[in-house]
């Protein structure tokens, strides 16, 4: 087997997903004209490709404006992967209803898409395809591919995927809110050198408590407040150890190169079970 070229990008495939679009946008920002894109069937496999050095970069969705955090990505960062975040990119997400070229709405017996695609079009489906069962598939592009070969399946994805697989766009802009956006992280293997520059930086952290006790969250927030650091995001996720046991994802302004960030992190390391730095990267 030949090794992948070092600048390859692993992404949730097949071609035509929003991850594909985000990977191309990152490649452009890195000045890579003809990027090598490696399709993966799941987000965990994108992380594996990067952690095992099969690809230099990976692209993973982190959060959607309508549905919130992409939990598969957060769990990989917290519990499986040692990858580092090198950058972020926000995409506008405008979904289409995708059908077989000869199908009409009467032919449709199931609507397939990625769980996020289905969730982001809930209202449209309720109003226009009420009672038609939905099935989840690995990605929106996968749903376009299925729709292209089966009159009874409608997919939800972008117009590029519809075109790529020879399907028809039956309706555009079917997402429940026009401001629908998803943010993506560019990841590299632990210790990867920074690849994007900018004037303002952000640092993402995964914080694990020693024990659940009164004031634990207040203590974390206080360390950032004492150091004069602005928080941009805080999210909790179950530790998967016991019901009601949580860890926290925190995004702060600044970089690990900044003295005040180093001070806050050193103080937190004394009080927490683990402070996992997921990466410092320029704000888009
Ligand atoms: O299925 C795709 O096209 C994807 O890239 C996945 C994904 C996601 O993980 O949220 C990406 C962006 C949109 O929010 C919908 C789906």
TrEMBL record:
GO cellular component annotations of the record: cytoplasm
Provide a GO biological process annotation: L-phenylalanine biosynthetic process
Supply one GO molecular-function term: prephenate dehydratase activity
Pathway terms, separated by semicolons: Amino-acid biosynthesis; L-phenylalanine biosynthesis; phenylpyruvate from prephenate: step 1/1
Reactions listed under catalytic activity: prephenate + H(+) = 3-phenylpyruvate + CO2 + H2O
Query: One Pfam family, short name please?
Result: ACT
- Keywords associated with the record: Amino-acid biosynthesis, Aromatic amino acid biosynthesis, Lyase, Phenylalanine biosynthesis
Annotated EC: 4.2.1.51
Domain (Prephenate dehydratase): residue spans on this chain: 8-189
Indicate the segments forming the ACT domain, all copies: 205-282
Q: Where are the transmembrane segments?
A: none
Site entry (Essential for prephenate dehydratase activity), positions = 182
Lyase among keywords: yes
Database matches in InterPro entries? ACT-like_dom_sf, ACT_dom, Chor_mutase/pphenate_deHydtase, Preph_deHydtase
Q: Carries keyword Lyase?
A: yes
Q: Which branch of life, at top level?
A: Bacteria
Q: Which NCBIfam families match?
A: PRK11898.1
| Cross-referenced PANTHER family | PREPHENATE DEHYDRATASE P PROTEIN, PREPHENATE DEHYDRATASE-RELATED
- Name of the protein this chain belongs to: Prephenate dehydratase
């Amino acid at each position: 087997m030949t090794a992948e070229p070092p600048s390859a990008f692993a992404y949730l495939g097949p071609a035509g997903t929003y991850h594909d679009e985000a990977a191309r946008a990152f490649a452009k920002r890195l000045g890579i004209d003809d990027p090598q894109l490696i399709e993966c069937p799941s987000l965990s496999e994108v992380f594996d490709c990067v952690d095992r050095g099969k690809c230099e970069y990976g692209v993973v969705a982190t959060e959607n404006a309508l549905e919130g955090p992409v939990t598969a990505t957060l769990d990989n960062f917290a519990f499986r992967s040692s990858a580092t975040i090198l950058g972020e990119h926000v995409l506008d997400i405008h979904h289409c209803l995708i059908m077989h070229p000869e199908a009409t709405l009467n032919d449709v017996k199931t609507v397939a898409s990625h769980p996020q695609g289905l969730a982001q079009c809930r209202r449209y489906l309720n109003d226009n395809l009420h009672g038609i069962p939905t099935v989840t598939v690995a990605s929106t592009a996968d749903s376009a591919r299925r729709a292209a070969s089966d009159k009874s399946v409608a997919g939800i994805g972008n117009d590029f995927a519809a075109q790529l697989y020879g399907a028809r766009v039956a309706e555009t802009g079917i997402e429940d809110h026009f401001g629908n956006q998803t943010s993506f992280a560019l990841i590299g293997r632990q210790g990867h050198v920074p690849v994007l520059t900018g004037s303002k930086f952000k640092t993402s952290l995964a914080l694990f408590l020693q024990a659940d006790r009164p004031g634990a969250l207040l203590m974390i927030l206080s360390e950032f407040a004492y150091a004069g650091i602005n928080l941009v995001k805080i999210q909790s996720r179950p530790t998967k150890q016991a019901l009601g046991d949580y860890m926290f994802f925190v995004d702060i302004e600044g970089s690990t190169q900044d003295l005040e960030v180093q001070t806050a992190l050193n103080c937190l390391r004394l009080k927490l079970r683990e402070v996992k730095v997921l990466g410092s990267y320029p704000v888009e």
